Amino acid sequence: MVLTDILFPLAIVAVIILSKAIKIVNEYERVVIFRLGRLSGVKGPGLFLIIPIIDTVVKIDLRVVAIDVPKQAVITKDNVTVAVDAVVYYQVIDPTKAVNEVENFKYATAMLSQTTLRDVIGQLELDDVLSNREDVNRNIQEQLDISTDPWGIKVTGVTLRDVSIDDTMLRAIAKQAEAEREKRSRIILADGEFIAATKMKDAARLYEEVPVSIKLRELQTYAEIAREKNMIVVANSTDVAEVAAFSKAFTKKE
């Protein structure tokens, strides 16, 4: 009876210790173990044992995490105030560094994302931010990845979600776009006038070499005008005779 009274509490203690010693982690998790305050190693996935009381563990999730970076008011290089928010994707690739090199890697990565976003946007002009988002995303990602590498964190992607501008600036951008379209229109018209003037100059040289050809052109113009039934065309008979004679002579010559 006395032996039973002793073994039963010992069995209970053994079960409690064993339950504390057995650890199970999922495939996407790792556990950093500290033994008496010193780094012992990384365990997982699956089943493993620790020494209760002596060992302490920190569980790390290795899956990709998305950070919602709240809107940041940023002044661009050309002194335009914009509100920018983004999404940052990162993954822990070294659990030991993530635990030992930074106090709270999640909070640190989130704060670093905000400051890096402001720094990168502040070095660009508004047109670059609006038209080259892929380059901006890549630049932010590269800078974040360099900064988080000592923490054992890999930044896998950055996406600018929205770039907001106040109404005054929107109206200014609309006016700028309208002015740009007007400029292109004027350039196209000027190019057309230049080509037309060049062709007219060439035609004038041909008319100068064969003066009677201008008479033929004049008669052709009369014929085109005469197609309008409500118009009367009056031609100089002498000019018509000269043109007819020239055309007849030219035909015989051929």
From TrEMBL:
<dbReference type="GO" id="GO:0005886">
    <property type="term" value="C:plasma membrane"/>
</dbReference>
<keyword id="KW-1133">Transmembrane helix</keyword>
<dbReference type="InterPro" id="IPR036013">
    <property type="entry name" value="Band_7/SPFH_dom_sf"/>
</dbReference>
<dbReference type="InterPro" id="IPR001107">
    <property type="entry name" value="Band_7"/>
</dbReference>
<dbReference type="GO" id="GO:0006508">
    <property type="term" value="P:proteolysis"/>
</dbReference>
<protein>
    <submittedName>
        <fullName>Membrane protease subunit, stomatin/prohibitin</fullName>
    </submittedName>
</protein>
<dbReference type="GO" id="GO:0098552">
    <property type="term" value="C:side of membrane"/>
</dbReference>
<dbReference type="InterPro" id="IPR043202">
    <property type="entry name" value="Band-7_stomatin-like"/>
</dbReference>
<keyword id="KW-0472">Membrane</keyword>
<dbReference type="InterPro" id="IPR001972">
    <property type="entry name" value="Stomatin_HflK_fam"/>
</dbReference>
<keyword id="KW-0378">Hydrolase</keyword>
<feature type="domain" description="Band 7">
    <location>
        <begin position="20"/>
        <end position="177"/>
    </location>
</feature>
<keyword id="KW-0812">Transmembrane</keyword>
<dbReference type="GO" id="GO:0008233">
    <property type="term" value="F:peptidase activity"/>
</dbReference>
<comment type="similarity">
    <text>Belongs to the band 7/mec-2 family.</text>
</comment>
<keyword id="KW-0645">Protease</keyword>
<dbReference type="Pfam" id="PF01145">
    <property type="entry name" value="Band_7"/>
</dbReference>
